[in-house]
Write a structure and sequence with these properties.
The protein is an alpha+beta fold. α5 runs antiparallel to α7 and α7 packs antiparallel against α8. The longest helix is centred in the last third of the chain and has 67 residues. It starts with a helix and ends with a helix. The mean pLDDT is 76.
Length: 283
């Protein structure tokens, strides 16, 4: 696209706003008017889409009375669907009808993506509810980032669309404006599905995190219990191992047996207290 921009500036007669949009700024989906032309920013997923937020790319469109100019850095699914429709002989009556086709293809692709993401979330939810979290936390985080990015990029800017519908170029027929209104409604339905899926992923993340926290607490409690039960043995061994005079039972014939019995008794009492406390918690 870097090589094509100078040629477009010299020969295409495009408005300056088109090249400003190419250079940077907001990439959220929008349609706005500049002089007697329409400028649109359309976002879609790439062909090698793998549920990564970075796989969402942008298509810039300039629409005039008799022409449509597009610019993109990556191959997009919606553009390929438009090409396939043209090859099938589908009639596209005007430049704005072509833009409307692109927007509807983007909305259809978004709905397809939401269905696939929902299937993945269903599988992860079954694993979480069965207690098999595994590496699903990373998948949930990736899906949530994707939903946030889709919601931010694919939601059409309502202000720009309202200004266009209120003051369209003179060459835009009324039926094409109604098509744009209908396309925005399709986007609204798809975006509601995205928001619902995002909330569902958030709840699943919280459930998975709570189960991991419970498992960590259980392991920590077991480690603490083992440490407490081993404390009498370590304490007695430390006392008996001091190289000083006056150690009790040092000269007694059954001293070792008495010490072992004392240690076992104290350890058994501590174990009984722990089990009793666990029984109260379960009740």
């Amino acid at each position: 696209m870097a090589q094509s921009s100078p040629w477009l500036r010299r020969h295409a007669g495009l408005p300056e706003g088109f090249f400003e949009a190419l250079g940077g700024g907001s990439r959220s989906t929008r349609i706005e008017r500049e002089r007697d032309e329409l400028l649109a920013v359309v976002n879609d997923v790439t062909f090698d889409f793998a549920f990564e937020p970075s796989d969402v790319a942008t298509l810039w469109v300039a629409v005039g009375e008799r022409r449509v100019v597009t610019a993109r850095r990556q191959a997009l699914r919606s553009v390929d669907r438009l090409r396939a429709a043209a090859n099938r002989g589908e009639a596209i009556g005007s430049p704005l009808a072509l833009l409307d086709h692109l927007l509807r293809d983007q909305a259809d692709e978004l709905q397809r993506l939401v269905r696939q993401a929902t299937e993945r979330v269903d599988d992860i939810e079954d694993k979480v509810l069965a207690g098999r979290t595994g590496d699903d936390s990373a998948d949930l985080a990736r899906l949530r980032r994707l939903m946030v990015r889709l919601q931010r990029l694919l939601a059409p800017e309502p202000g720009a669309l309202l200004r266009l519908l209120g003051n369209p170029p003179r060459w835009v027929p009324a039926e094409d404006l109604q098509r744009l209104r209908d396309a925005s409604e399709d986007f609204a339905l798809a975006l509601r599905d995205v928001a619902a899926l995002q909330e569902r992923v958030k709840l699943l993340q919280e459930e998975a995190d709570s189960r991991v926290a419970m498992e960590n607490n259980r392991i920590l409690f077991l480690l603490t219990t083992v440490t407490v039960l081993a404390l009498p043995i370590n304490l007695v061994a430390g006392l008996m191992g001091m190289n000083v005079g006056g150690i009790p039972l040092a000269e007694h014939a059954h001293g070792f047996a008495w010490v072992v019995a004392l240690v076992l008794g104290v350890t058994g009492g501590a174990a009984w207290l722990v089990l009793k406390r666990l029984g109260r918690k379960r009740r």
